[in-house]
Amino acid sequence: MENSTTGINAAAEILEFTAEESAAAFINKKFIILVSGVAALGGLLFGFDTAIISGAIPYITSYFSLNEYWIGWAVGSILIGCGVGAMLAGKLADKYGRRYMLIICAILFAASGIGAGLSTNLTEFIIFRLIGGLGVGAAAMVSPMYIAEIAPAKWRGRLVACYQLAIVSGILIAYFANFIFDGTGVNNWRWMFASQAAPSLLFFLLLLLVPETPRWLIMKQRNAEAEKILKKVLGNSPVEAEMRIIKDSFHNAKSVSLKQLFSKTYRPVLYLGITVAIFQQVTGINSIIYYAPEIFRETGLDSSSSLMQTIGIGVINILSTIGAIALVDRIGRKKLLLIGTVMMGISLVAVGLCFEYHYYDHYLVLIFMLLYVASFGCTLGAVVWVYLAEIFPNLIRSLALSVATLALWLADFAVTLTFPVMRTHLGTSYTMFCYAALCVVAFVYMLFKVKETKGQSLEDIETLFIH
C-alpha cells in the first residue's frame, strides 16, 4: 500500500496540481488520478501493440518472404482493425458503457499478441494484427473519452495528455522488448508479439476496480449512481449544479444518428475534429515510430545499434509527452499545435537533407529525428487527443469521436502502407520532404480554424462550436 501511495503522489507531482486546485478537491486527488491512470493504460497497450512490429520487420520479412508492398501491408494491417474498432466503439460505448468497452479492449490486446506470435503463415498473422487493431482503435477513443468525462475541467488537459504518455510508454516498452528478444534466435519475433499478453492482463484486472463515468450514467438516467461518482470527483463542491448542467447538455435525447452528426449544426466541429486527427498522422510520425530501425540501418548501422537508437526515440517521446502534460493547461491547445507543426517541419527537412547528401556523421540523423519526435510528443502527440476528447458536445461525443478516430487511423494506415513504397521509389530524403510540406499545410489550417479550449468545462466548450 505504501508503494501505491508513493506512486500516486509522484503522479500528482508530474501533473503539477496547484494548491488552489488541490484544495477544491482535497479528498479526491488520489481517486481522480487512479481512475484516469487506469483508463490511460489503454494507451500503453495501444503503443505496445502498434510499435512492437518495428523490431520484427526484418524477421517477418524473411519468414513470410515479403516485398516492400507486403511489408507495408503487414505493418499497416493493424490500422484497418483500428478504423473498424473506432467506428464500432462509439455505439458500443454508448450502449454498454466506457468501462465495459475498455475491458473488451484488454481481451483483444492479449489475443492479438499471442495469436500473432503463434502464426505460421501471413494470413494468420494479418488476422491477429486486425484483431489487435480492433482493441487499439476502440481504446484510442474510449480511454481519452473516459478521462475527459470524469476529470474536472482544470485538470482535464493534463489528465487526457497522460493518455498520450501511456501510449509513448507502451512504445518504449515495445522497443525494449524488441531489443531484449532480438538475440534469442530464429523465433525472436514470436516472443516480441507474445510478450504483449502481460500488460494486457494487468489492464484487465485494474479495470475491474474503476467506476463508470458520471456522464454516461446520466445519459442512461442512472442519476443516483452518477451523483455518487460526482461526489467522489468534486469532493467538497456541491454536485447538484453539475448534475443539472450535464443533464441539460443531452437535451433530453438518448442518441444521435450518423445523418444528424453530419447535419448543419454539428458538421463544422466534426470536420474540425477529423482534419486535426488526420494532420496528427500525415505529418509522418508513424513512419518514424514503425520504421525507425530500418531508417537507421540505411545510415550504416547494424541491427543492434539501430534498435538501441530506436530506444532513444522512445525515451525522448516519453520526456516530451511529460512536457506536454505540464504545458497543455498553461500554454493552451492552439499554441502548442502551431509550435509543433513548425518544429516538426524543420526537423523533417533536416533529416531529408542528411539523406539527400548522404551525410550521416556526428549523429545528425539521430539528433534531428529526436528533435522531430520531441516536437511531436510535446504538441500534436498529446494535444490532439486532448482536443478530440473535449470539442464534441456530450450528445454526439461517442459517435463523433468514432468518426474522427476512424479518420486518424485511415491516415495512419496511408502513411504506414506507403512509407516503404515511397522510400523505395522516391528515396528517404524526398519522403521526408513530403511530410514536411504537410506540416506547412497543417500549420496554416490550425492557425485559422482551431479554437482555444483551455480551462473550460465540456459544456462551455460546446457553446464555442454549436450555436
Task: Please explain how this structure is put together.
With 467 residues, the chain is an all-alpha fold. It has a single domain, classed as Up-down Bundle (Growth Hormone, Chain: A). The protein has 23 helices and no strands.
Describe the structure concisely for a colleague.
This protein is 81% helix and 0% strand.
Write a concise keyword list for the protein shown above:
single chain, 467 residues, mainly alpha, Growth Hormone, Chain: A, 23 helices
Write the layout of secondary structure elements.
Blueprint: H1 2-15, H2 19-24, H3 29-51, H4 53-64, H5 68-96, H6 98-118, H7 122-150, H8 153-181, H9 188-194, H10 197-207, H11 214-219, H12 223-234, H13 240-249, H14 258-261, H15 267-282, H16 285-298, H17 303-327, H18 333-356, H19 364-378, H20 380-391, H21 397-425, H22 428-449, H23 458-465
Order of helices and strands: HHHHHHHHHHHHHHHHHHHHHHH
Number of helices: 23
> What is the CATH homologous superfamily assignment?
MFS general substrate transporter like domains
Radius of gyration: 21 Å
CATH architecture group name: Up-down Bundle
Integer count of domains: 1
Termini separation: 49 Å
- Structural class of the secondary structure composition? mainly alpha
CATH-derived topology: Growth Hormone, Chain: A
What kind of oligomer do you see?
A: single chain
Q: Report low-confidence residues grouped into runs of 5 or more.
A: 1-27
Q: Overall 3D geometry?
A: globular
- Binned, the helix content reads over 70%
* Most strands sheet: none
CATH class: Mainly Alpha
Report the portion of residues in β strands: under 5%
Quantity of strands, as a count: 0
Give the overall average pLDDT. Answer: 86
Organism: Pinibacter aurantiacus
GO molecular function: transmembrane transporter activity
Subcellular location: Cell membrane
Membrane topology: Multi-pass membrane protein
